[in-house]
Amino acid sequence: MDVEIKRDGLKLHGVLETPATPSYDIVILMHGFTGDLGYQKTALLAQIAQSLHEAGLATIRFDFNGCGKSEGQFSKMTMPNEIADGQAILAYTKSLPNIRRIYLLGHSQGGVVASMLAGYYPEDIAKLVLLAPAATLKDDAQKGKLMGVKYNPDAIPETLTLDDGTVVGGFYLRTAQTLPIYEVAQHYAGPVCLMHGDQDKVVDMVASKRYHAIYQHSELHIVAGATHQFREATRSETLKLVTRFLING
Predict the structure, then answer these.
(1) For 225, how many CA atoms within 13 A lie in the half-sphere containing its CB?
(2) What is the value of pTM for the model shown?
(3) What is the C-alpha separation between 158 and 98, in angstroms, rounded?
(4) What is the pLDDT of residues 2-36, one digit of tens each?
């Protein structure tokens, strides 16, 4: 069912799906840069949610501010306010009846949000899944590049227009330069599943390797042939790995 969560005057749109059981574990799914919760059946998060439902898990997917059906302007999106979105979704999820355990799953930039949210709320998150987490966004911001577009990192523009016409705010770039990604993430000591494709041309797999180095209980899967979206033949393997990790133990 559709749900609406308010965060600082903005309405965030989400989709909550639960099994027909008295109680259940639930997975919060977080999408990547310029993405959405997965409205197409072929979308990564939509297919992950379907696989999790078949295994008896509940899911809640949502659009970050300025994305999909959520309110806000994408040009005002920043990593800090996406983390605030995530905190609002976590608070909403914790208020639901019949919840046993809460898991977090993030893809790409959503993986960075999920990793930091788990670091801020380690007692609330039972397991964490990071798919191609885009922690290199900080490295890129310090170098002055975003999705192939270059800018002066020492004189950040008010806005930056990407090749596809997407307008990114300068404050996004500024906050990305100093974001304490790994410093916050390492406060999470629970089980972590890291997955990264060896053919990912968007986010270098060094990001997942760095996460693996700071976590106490993580497993790292380098998926042969997988791109950033884990498409085609590697999609099935991805779904199986994620589902197995969350339902076991």
Answers:
(1) 8
(2) 0.96
(3) 46
(4) 999 999 999 999 999 999 999 999 999 999 999 99
